[in-house]
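Quick note —
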Amino acid sequence: MSESRTLSAETVDEQQAAPPEPATPAPPERTATRTPTWWVWLAAWPVTAVFVLSNAATPLYVLWQRDIGFSKGTLTVVFAFYIVGLLGSLLVSGVVSDRLGRKPVLLPALALALAACAIFATATTVAALIVARLFTGIAVGAVVSAGMAAVTDVAGPERKRLAALLASCAMVFGAGLGPLLAGLLSETLPAPTVTVFVVEAVLLLTAVLAVLRMPVRRPAARGKGAWVRVPGVPHGNGIHLTLGIAVFAPGITATSFVLSLGPTLLTELLGTTSRIVAGAMAFVMFLAATGVQFAVQKLPRRTILTAGAISTTLSMAALIAAVQASSVALLVASALLAGSGQGMGQLGGLSLLNSTVPAQRLAEANAALNVGGYIPAGLLPVSTGYLMDAVGLPTGATLFGTVLMGLAVVGGLVVLSGHRRVSEPV
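Predicted structure written out below.
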């Protein structure tokens, strides 16, 4: 009898020592952390595919200028409608994505990008180019908010730094791949303005498939406030946003100038209208933006941002020297430095936001960073295009370089003074 009581007591002790019930809530967490790393890379593909479209038209503008007939000023207006669409999209896409989920924003954006391909392929008027650029801008606005946030969602909290790196590199790599592909295809295959956008449409269709299968969930709770509003960040994150914009804005304005007026500068300096040369210059610019991010990814964010401001400043010095000396080598150096400046400003800004902003506001925070960057990227190159028509290319480019150099220096000073109030996030 005492033996039986002993066994019974041991059984009770075992049951108390190892209760099975508390282990039940664990599976959802384990599933989230076990998302394969290749899915994090694949989640960045829609960002790349849409950004290929964003700059695919760059080497083709000389063809449209020849066939349709329009000035450098009109060319920068066509380019600026992309910024108009992008900024309009950013007013709503980040908020909608945080409330309804990433897919309800990304799928319509990809549909608009496919429509832009069809319009570009059949464009015979400036109005058609403007509509295609507008649609492209709306699609890009969606992917820089919802698409980049989706990469972070798929990566999970333990891989935020990787998510920021891949999302940022997907953007600049796609932006560089677009003009290179367009330049090569348009010079080697018939019907250049058709072939380029047929190929891009195929890339976008693969991005649609990736979004449909992407392992992201709808938000558990919806935020409050207006659906259409100037995007912002939660209280306490304003300093992180300011530091990112201070460096990202001059950097992306420099690369926007190269994209919109780079082919014109090449024609004036080199006397060539080769679309491969124009596309290759844009490609190496964004290749530098991609490579530099992998090179500096482990550095403190403050160091990355400071280096980005210095790179953009040197880029503008090289641009001024290039137009004064009619030097193609200096123009290419300016493009490489501009790409590096944008890449580091973008990576530093995104990393600060990824590490400090809660997931339910992340798409809106990404949108806010891009609003701050793309406003000067739209205004300054357009103004410079018209200025060049009035005072000539060397004077217009020199004034642009001087103004942007000043903005880059101010951005660097903002980072150096602001870093004392910001602890380095994990």
